[in-house]
């Protein structure tokens, strides 16, 4: 890792005279949900500009607007001082803005090979010859990969993207974005799928690009990344910019100020007591995610407190949760619920025993498009709202109104279509669904994704209340979320438990080290320390 | 339908923008019904004999066969995709009924039971191919469609089975369509044929089933988001299986009515009802702005297509232009459900120098070309 003086920040500061991108008073609403309320920012040439915001602050929407995927309701975008309008992503690309989205799968075609994905832009190019040639495609792919200094071997080039790892996909998407020679590169939470080592490599690369004159907008909600990389940080909260900050020479960013802007309260206010565990409810023994896994894991969940399963993308936490719920099968493992064997062959069987899952992807796995809140809510327990087999919509509406009041769902009423709700309110409905039953075990997979800060606190409170009667397991990839909601934190790395700590023992550093223990033998760089100290007091 | 109709409650749009939007809403919701009623009145006023009771009933009677098949297809469209084998099953049912009564001299009721069982069997084959063997529904049902059409011809040696016909070995068949069987489409109660009652009852039952029962809602859940339905505890495969099985039974029912009408085992019978059923189901998407398959829509679609064809035929339209009319009606209905969008449309910003002033920058007013492009690309 490079010492701070050599990170190029001083050089870049001198060049920051021309404004590459300016955003003025951008607003955007989805239905009644005002996501952006007049955002303005200005990025100078060669800058690495960090954009921070908690989940749901409006970062993703702003990125979508800058990359041409969405149109703003109001405001304007200026490139090199001229007003531009992006009717589609291609227009943004032509204007020199390259975007790498958070989920690398959004940028690749899974069934095509690595080479074809790298050369995808040429494939659609009108000047390309009609006949497809693998040799030409691979040559182009090598060329594209070279813009990032990457060398893929022939076998990798010829394997489908489906078969390569998430970090390779991320690099592939990045290489393609760079091959278009953008003036401004937008990186949207690029490290969420990467290990500490891979992140460090990415940071070196970003610094090198900035040194060559490229401007970078780096979106993240991790303090350590801003600390290592950025010349300036803008904080977005509730759809508006809360301030811009620059590091104090020699001391780095003033995190207390940044965090206050980020969270609308001083960090210390969010401290809470750790709850003690109650009796064990669910026991997992000899769990192997894949049959050939050398290690197996055991885990016992207790009533009375919240257990967090912390791990990066690919750590196996989603598979584990879905297996407990009977939604997928894994290599091996035994489940015991309340002392009796528990072997659900399908989710319905798990639901009958009081084991419920709030799945990872709200839109793909939980919501029925176009349905009103009440039908979304009652879906798993529809039979309790019937006379004979006819639905009793009156009873359904009353139950929905009660749930909306209890969880603080902001919506026009029980018959409002789910799409008119904000992400946080949608998530409350998806969780509220299970409150109609009698939860013994509640599994929540990334419940705070795409959820605004207030809804996040509401959901956290609901989850902690539920722990009084049920064993609660929250899976997340975010250390700060883990520290915010958990009483016990279990770290998972590729199907193996690398740490199992009570909240009082679980510092940020320890957790981060455990999350990537097998990839980086030594603990993560000491650079992260100042930010960690700031963040820990917040958690 | 009732799951969808409250979209517009929370809207607060300024008047100039709201007016065309509200009009668009109205057209999308009631367009098909309005056009249908208007056409009915226009035909009644200009064509002698169109507005009579008998003619109105006969429209329903003509449409009953394809419409019952379309109701089954509606169910499959909800959970997955159109069941393309319904026409072939209708035809097979005609052939089986003729075989049963003319060749094997069975009674009417036993012929009906056999037809329904055959329909159920085909439905189960479709369901197995789709649900357990993972073949995409359109392709699986296309495969069974061809197979059944071939099977049907092979069953009767490519001939039309009629009373008193001579078989290949020289024997003359002695059986005939029984009176109770031909009564299905031939006899009337209070001036309405039994087949029309059957059609109305099936449509009503399916409507209640889909709109009001728990199971109906689960069918829509499976179609809306299969993974979400599964993770909410639904036995998704059972529902999908049931949809294709019921579709087979309904197509066989359609075939029973058709056999009762034709009174012979016509080898080409039922072939045309596939495309008619597809049109009815898809026109149904546009009824009340549902944008999804629904029983009321399919019923309205059947009546709508029926009255247009009947009206035009009575005004001297040659029969061979009927497919042309059906096709145009279908495209019109598809435009209503997919191209005209209701309410809450996303407005692109008018970020031109003209509207650079923040006070007018809401983008709700300036119809420049840029928003137009954005509108059309954000499908």
TrEMBL record, chain A:
**What Pfam families does UniProt report for this protein, alphabetically?**
ABC_tran
Is ATP-binding given among the entry's keywords? yes
Cross-referenced CDD domains: ABC_Carb_Monos_I, ABC_Carb_Monos_II
- Signal peptide positions (record): none
Q: Known InterPro entries for this protein?
A: AAA+_ATPase, ABC_carbohydrate_import_ATPase, ABC_transporter-like_ATP-bd, ABC_transporter-like_CS, P-loop_NTPase
Q: Which keywords belong to this entry?
A: ATP-binding, Nucleotide-binding, Repeat, Transport
Q: Does the keyword Amino-acid biosynthesis apply?
A: no
Domain ABC transporter span(s) in chain numbering: 21-263, 279-519
Give the start-end ranges of region Disordered: 516-539
State the name under which the record lists this protein: Sugar ABC transporter ATP-binding protein
UniProtKB/TrEMBL annotation, chain B:
Gene Ontology CC terms, in alphabetical order: plasma membrane
Q: Where in the cell is it found?
A: Cell membrane
Which key words are in the record? Cell inner membrane, Cell membrane, Membrane, Transmembrane, Transmembrane helix, Transport
Q: Molecular function (GO) terms listed?
A: transmembrane transporter activity
Task: Give the transmembrane region(s).
Answer: 26-45, 57-78, 111-135, 191-210, 241-260, 272-288, 295-312, 324-340
Report the membrane topology from the UniProt record.
Answer: Multi-pass membrane protein
A Pfam family this chain is assigned to: BPD_transp_2
Q: List every stretch annotated Disordered.
A: 350-379
Name of protein: Transporter
List the taxonomic lineage. Answer: Bacteria, Bacillati, Actinomycetota, Actinomycetes, Kitasatosporales
């Amino acid at each position: 890792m490079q010492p701070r003086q050599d990170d190029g920040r001083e050089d870049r500061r001198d060049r920051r005279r021309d404004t590459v991108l300016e955003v003025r008073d951008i607003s955007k609403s989805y239905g009644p949900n005002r996501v952006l309320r007049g955002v303005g920012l200005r990025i100078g040439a060669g800058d690495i500009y960090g954009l921070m915001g908690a989940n749901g602050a409006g970062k993703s929407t702003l990125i979508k607007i800058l990359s041409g995927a969405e149109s703003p309701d109001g405001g304007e975008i200026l490139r090199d001082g001229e007003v531009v309008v992006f009717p589609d992503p291609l227009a943004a690309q032509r204007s020199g803005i390259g975007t790498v989205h958070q989920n690398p799968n959004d940028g690749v075609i899974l069934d095509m090979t690595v080479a074809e994905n790298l050369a995808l832009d040429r494939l659609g190019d009108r000047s390309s010859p009609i006949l497809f040639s693998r040799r030409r495609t691979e040559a182009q792919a090598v060329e594209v990969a070279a813009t990032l200094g990457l060398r893929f071997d022939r076998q990798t080039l010829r394997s489908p993207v489906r078969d390569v790892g998430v970090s390779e996909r991320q690099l592939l998407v990045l290489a393609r974005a760079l091959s278009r020679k953008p003036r401004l590169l937008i990186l949207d939470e690029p490290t969420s799928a990467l290990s500490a080592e891979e992140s460090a490599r990415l940071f070196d690369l970003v610094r090198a690009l900035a040194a060559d004159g490229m401007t970078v907008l780096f979106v993240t909600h991790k303090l350590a990344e801003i600390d290592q990389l950025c010349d300036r940080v803008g904080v977005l909260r509730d759809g508006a910019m809360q301030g811009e900050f620059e590091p104090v020479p020699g001391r780095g960013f003033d995190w207390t100020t940044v965090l206050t802007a980020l969270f609308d309260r001083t960090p210390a206010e969010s401290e809470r007591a750790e709850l003690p565990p109650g009796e064990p409810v669910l026991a997992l023994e000899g769990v192997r995610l894949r049959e050939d896994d050398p290690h197996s894991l055991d885990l016992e969940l207790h009533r009375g407190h919240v257990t967090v399963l912390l791990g990066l993308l690919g750590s196996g936490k989603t598979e584990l949760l879905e297996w407990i719920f009977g939604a997928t099968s894994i290599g091996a493992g035994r489940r015991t619920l309340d002392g009796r064997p528990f072997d659900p062959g399908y989710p319905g069987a798990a639901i009958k025993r009081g084991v419920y899952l709030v799945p990872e992807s709200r839109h793909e796995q939980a919501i029925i498009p176009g349905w009103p809140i009440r039908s979304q809510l009652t879906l798993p327990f529809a039979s309790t709202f019937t006379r004979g087999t006819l639905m009793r919509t009156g009873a359904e509406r009353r139950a929905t109104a009660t749930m909306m009041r209890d969880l603080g769902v902001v919506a026009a009423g029980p018959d409002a279509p789910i799409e008119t709700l904000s992400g946080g309110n949608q998530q409350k409905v998806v969780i509220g669904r299970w409150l109609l039953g009698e939860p013994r075990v509640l599994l929540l997979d990334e419940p705070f994704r795409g959820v605004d800060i207030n809804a996040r606190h509401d959901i956290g409170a609901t989850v902690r209340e539920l722990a009084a009667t049920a064993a609660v397991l929250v899976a997340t990839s975010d250390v700060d979320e883990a520290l915010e909601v958990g009483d016990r934190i279990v770290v998972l790395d590729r199907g193996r438990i690398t740490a199992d700590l009570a909240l009082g023992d679980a510092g940020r550093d320890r957790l981060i080290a455990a999350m990537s223990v097998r990839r980086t033998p030594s603990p993560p760089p000491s650079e992260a320390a100042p930010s960690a100290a700031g963040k820990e007091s917040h958690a | 339908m009732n799951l969808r109709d409250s979209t517009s409650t929370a809207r607060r749009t300024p008047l100039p923008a709201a007016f065309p939007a509200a009009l668009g809403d109205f057209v999308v919701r009631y367009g098909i019904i309005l056009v249908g009623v208007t056409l009915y009145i226009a035909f009644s006023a200009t064509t002698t004999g169109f507005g009579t009771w008998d003619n109105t009933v006969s429209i329903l009677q003509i449409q009953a066969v394809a419409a019952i098949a379309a109701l089954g297809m509606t169910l499959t469209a909800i959970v997955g995709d159109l069941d393309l084998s319904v026409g072939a099953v209708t035809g097979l049912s005609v052939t089986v009924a003729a075989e049963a009564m003319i060749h094997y001299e069975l009674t009417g009721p036993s012929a009906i039971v056999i037809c329904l069982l055959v329909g159920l069997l085909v439905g189960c084959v479709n369901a197995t191919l789709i649900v357990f063997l993972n073949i995409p529904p359109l392709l699986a049902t296309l495969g069974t469609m061809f197979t059944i059409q071939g099977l049907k011809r092979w069953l009767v040696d490519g001939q039309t089975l009629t009373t008193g016909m001579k078989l290949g070995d020289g024997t003359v068949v002695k059986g005939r369509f029984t009176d109770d069987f031909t009564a299905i489409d031939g006899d009337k109660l209070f001036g309405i044929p039994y087949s029309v009652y059957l059609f109305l009852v099936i449509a009503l039952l399916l409507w209640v089933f889909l709109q009001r029962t728990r199971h109906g809602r689960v069918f829509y859940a499976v179609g809306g988001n299969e993974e979400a339905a599964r993770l909410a505890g639904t036995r998704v495969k059972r529902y999908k299986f049931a949809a294709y099985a019921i579709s087979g039974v309904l197509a066989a029912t359609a075939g029973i009515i058709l056999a009762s009408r034709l009174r012979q085992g016509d080898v080409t019978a039922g072939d045309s009802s596939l495309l008619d059923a597809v049109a009815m189901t898809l026109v149904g998407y546009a009824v009340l702005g549902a944008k999804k398959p629904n029983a009321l829509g399919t019923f309205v679609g059947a009546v709508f297509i029926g009255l247009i064809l009947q009206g035009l035929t009575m005004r001297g339209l040659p029969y061979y232009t009927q497919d042309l009319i059906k096709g145009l009606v279908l495209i019109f209905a598809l435009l209503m459900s997919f191209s005209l969008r209701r309410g809450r449309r996303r407005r692109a910003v008018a970020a031109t120098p003209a509207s650079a002033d923040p006070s007018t920058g809401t983008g709700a007013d300036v119809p420049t070309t840029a928003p137009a492009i954005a509108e059309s690309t954000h499908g």
